[in-house]
Fold:
Amino acid sequence: MKKGLIALAKYRLSRSRETFNNGLKLLNGGSLNSATNRFYYAAFYAARSLLATQELDSSKHSGVISLFTKHFVKTGIIEPDKAKIFNKTLIMRILHK
Structure:
């Protein structure tokens, strides 16, 4: 894998962790809507991190979800029940806007 892609994947994974931790703080503070948003973005950044390892990306959220499903879930790299968390957080994010 190219060095630039490794750096990009690491950056996105770091951003995912930071966003997840922010979500935990918001949740512990009683801000469910904001926490839900942060958890969705944590999953989104993590998915984009994985996509970077395959030289894939999309500017749209639906494109990221589609690519993630095609290249990581349907291939068996990510278990389908684990991937459902991504879709659940998206639905929760939409419902809590």
Summary: The two ends are 38 Å apart (CA to CA). The chain has one domain: 3-95. The helical segments are 3-28, 32-53, 61-73, 80-95. Residues 3-28 form the longest helix (26 residues).
